[in-house]
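Mods, move this if it's the wrong board.
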Amino acid sequence: MSEQFERDETATIGGWRAAAADLTHCLRFYSRLPVPPLPFERDAYALPSFPRLVRMIPLGGLIIGLLPAALFGLALLLDLGPWLAAMLSVSTMVMTTGALHEDGLADIADSVGGSTREKRLEIMRDSRIGSFGASALFLALALRIGALATLASRLDAGAVMAAILIASSLSRTAGLIPLVFLPPARRDGVSRAVGQPARETFWLAAGIAGGLAVVLGAVLGLPASGIALMLVLSALAGLALTAFASRHLGGQTGDVIGAAQQVAEIAALIGLLTAIRP
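Not the wrong board. Structure tokens:
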């Protein structure tokens, strides 16, 4: 279905309209934001085709981070304190995305208890959450909140808001690494249905994400060393999850992509923190 949609869409729109259609599909897939159909979209709510969608994921991630970043800044403006501001920001991100990536992280963590590849994939399809998954969720949320709160004690509000936006963009781009470099672990599932992007397209997306990070960070006062560490550590986190999935599952799934996003976001925020002295 996604391949047919891609052919139809390509045949009818091009240029900026194709880019706009890809961006809206990206936002609908990655978030619960109310994105209305564009006049020239033939099937606005079809499963997106990732071979084309990839180029817009860095910008889509940036847009998804706008509301959490704005709420963080507003909370500090109202003197609610860095910890409450961080909790409100992370909560808003979870609600904006419908806990899409957190669900993947929990499923991957629960699969650690499986003794075989088949058992691990079966566990990941179970809607129930186990102790490993619950622990992973708690730790991921705590690390994100703690990182943002600590950043707020070392940087001004605008710089921390930039960090939220950059981490949102970089982590979703890093989350593509398993999709690009591993085969699907299942014969069915979302990761197979959306298609495998070309590596050249992924490198283009990575370049866009890096460019957005450098420009936004420079404008809003992040140190160059901090931006560099965000870039490097988010990429390394995506690569680490890819290597783990290859050994653990023999391929990638939607849950692997979600887990890669989570660890990449945490790595990016901690990378920035290490570059900033108290």
